[in-house]
């Protein structure tokens, strides 16, 4: 994600969930009291190009292409109202896409 997503709250959440961040920090980023974000700041200071390779930063287009195709096939909205059913609906739709990919139909 680009520097627009560089918030301490996001980095705290990613750390709590055990997710390695691939969020570009702002150019003037300071090391403070957020260990996960501070680690990213240090890595980028050592070498932004190397950091991008390690976290595969340049693959954003792939994800955006996937969501674009997903929206073309299924629309921009879910039918379900209850959160549990929304999750089930999305898992079902992703399962359809995965089946098509495995069958090489996409």
Number of domains: 2
Q: What ranges have pLDDT less than 50 throughout 5 or more consecutive residues?
A: none
Secondary structural class: mainly alpha
**Major β-sheet annotation:** none
Determine the number of helices (DSSP H or I, runs of at least 4 residues): 5
- How many distinct beta strands? 0
Strand content: under 5%
Helix proportion range: 55-70%
CA(first)-CA(last) distance: 26 Å
What is the gyration radius calculated from CA atoms? 18 Å
Mean pLDDT: 92
Shape type: elongated
Task: Give the ordered list of helices and strands.
Answer: HHHHH
What does this structure look like?
With 106 residues, the chain is mostly helical. The protein has 2 domains: 3-55, no CATH class; 60-102, no CATH class. The protein is 61% helix and 0% strand. It has 5 helices and no strands. The chain has helices at 8-17, 35-46, 48-55, 60-74, 83-102.
List keywords for this structure.
106 residues; mainly alpha; 5 helices
Summarize it.
The chain has 5 helices and no strands. It has 106 residues and is mainly α.
Task: Furnish the topology, listing elements before pairings.
Blueprint lengths: L7 H10 L17 H12 L1 H8 L4 H15 L8 H20 L4
Helix pairs in contact: 2-3
């Amino acid at each position: 994600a680009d520097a627009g997503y560089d918030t301490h709250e996001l980095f705290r959440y990613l750390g709590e969930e055990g997710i390695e961040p691939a969020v570009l920090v702002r150019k003037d980023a300071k090391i403070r009291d957020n260990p996960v974000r501070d680690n990213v700041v240090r890595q980028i200071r050592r070498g932004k190009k190397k950091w991008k390779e390690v976290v595969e930063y340049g693959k954003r287009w792939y994800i955006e292409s996937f969501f674009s195709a997903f929206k073309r096939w299924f629309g921009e909205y879910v039918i379900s109202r209850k959160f549990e059913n929304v999750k089930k609906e999305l898992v079902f739709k992703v399962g359809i896409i995965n089946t098509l990919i495995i069958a090489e139909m996409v």
